[in-house]
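User: I want to check something. If I give you two sequences, will you return the structure for each one separately, not as a complex?

Assistant: Yes, each is folded on its own. Here is the first sequence with its structure:
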Amino acid sequence: MRTKPSFHLTQTDLFELEAESAPPYTVSAPIYDHMMREVDYPSWAKYILMLMKLAGKETRRSKIKDTKLCELACGTGNISLIMSKLGYDVTGIDSSKQMLEVAQTKLSRTRRRNACFINHDMVTYSSKETFDTAVCVYDSINYISDANALAQFFRNVYASLKPGGVFVFDASLESNSLSDASLFTQRGRHKGIHYQRRSLYDPKTKIHTTYVRVQRKDELFEETHREYVYKLDTIRGLCGKAGFNEKFVAGDFTMLEANNESQRVHFVLVKPNHD
């Protein structure tokens, strides 16, 4: 039986206590960057630039002024801010107001004016403005719960791009969810906030679930994050139906072709110049 919260012991197992449910990326937003501190965002951004260049996009700083880039599911803005520093005009989209508050605080410190953040669900987001490039990383598409919604997402991204525009996104495949590294338990403390995370994968439902417990003062919350694992061919087929031309699908942060055994794949798609 779970007991009521008692936090005087730092080694308390937060999963043995009663917790109030909270939507994903709400109460965890202030400590998200701390929990993800091992992620090398600058290297990830460099990899995205390599893929964009492969698709024919100019990535030299002297050539990208006024180039419009949209990051979908931008979170706390780590990739968006790196891209804006390089000179891109960046629009970051995310469904979590709390994550965007963190992103906006970081942007304010830079005093740069070539980035903005919009609170909107990425599946239904559409814009009168069109972009030269769109990116969506860190398994964000795995949060889309069914193939119909995923198809709608790809159609909307396609519509938001200029002819010749490039879309780079990644997806986590089943090999990643079956690996020891993705089935983790983590606990820590940051800025007086205790947290614990547990991750598990169900091969039958193809759902990878991460439970995040966050203790603030005398309150304990639990976020449930569900990622839906799609087959490589399913994603590839939906991208084609949306109208994209596939330039390359890279496996595991390499420049090698992805396959079904890859853990993380990056798609490089191009919107044709003529529909």
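And separately, the second sequence with its own structure:
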Amino acid sequence: MRIDIITVLPELLKSPFEASILKRAIEKGLVEVHMHNLRDYTDLSYNQVDDYQFGGGAGMVLMIEPIDKCITYLKSERNYDEVIYMTPDGETLNQKIANSISLQGNIIILCGHYKGVDQRVRDAFITKEISVGDYVLSGGELAAAILCDAIIRLIPGVLNNETSALTDTFQDNLLAPPVYTRPSDYKGMKVPEVLLSGNFPKIEEWRENQAYKRTKTLRPDLLKNGGTGE
């Protein structure tokens, strides 16, 4: 997979890709992540990429021309499956969306900034709009990092345990069951006996029941979207 991120603040995005799972995925050659500074695609003085909005109003808007130049250049080099715009009014990111995007070959992620982008960008170039929640960030960079983390960890070979991602919270519209590690008894707080039994069918049954109970208590809305019953 190749991910090209268009941003006005590439330095804000570097850190997540220089550590942990994302760094290992890049080093293994399982994913390429390239950042493109939008200011490199403007001919205006002071590398200007934004302007006042027509009709008045507070806040600056990213102009269409530098975005057009950047996307056109990238598309001249290869084909892309999606051009994604990170925006608060997009479709809320969930596991189903992450699963789907992780199967793509090449994607572009456009980070919004200021008051957003010229609507013509969204009309002409964007194939998918994604939000990370009903709140507003200073820009789309951190949201883009969240999206990248969510999809890269699903690529085969990224996680040491290939089945780990398949048992994550939300994969079956259920929250993950409780997990425990050593010691089995800490100050009188004991691990459930079934987990120490070695009876793996019973353990799996316990985990499924716990996942359902936790979901029913904490996120009953997920059960309405296809979660399994008891």
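Because they were folded independently, the notes below concern the second chain alone. The longest strand covers residues 82-92. Strands lie at 2-7, 32-37, 50-52, 60-62, 82-92, 106-111, 128-131, 185-186, 189-190.
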